[in-house]
Amino acid sequence: MNTNRARAHVPQALVAVGHNSNNEKHTEVHESTPNFLDIEILYFVNRASAEKEQLTLYNLRKLLRDNFHQWRSFGTLHPHLQSLERDGLIRGRVLPSEKSQGLAPKRTYKITALGKRTFSEELGSAHKIDTAMWKTQRNGTKKSEKLKSKSELR
Question: Which residues on neighbouring strands pair with residue 56, listed in sequence order?
Answer without folding.
Answer: 108
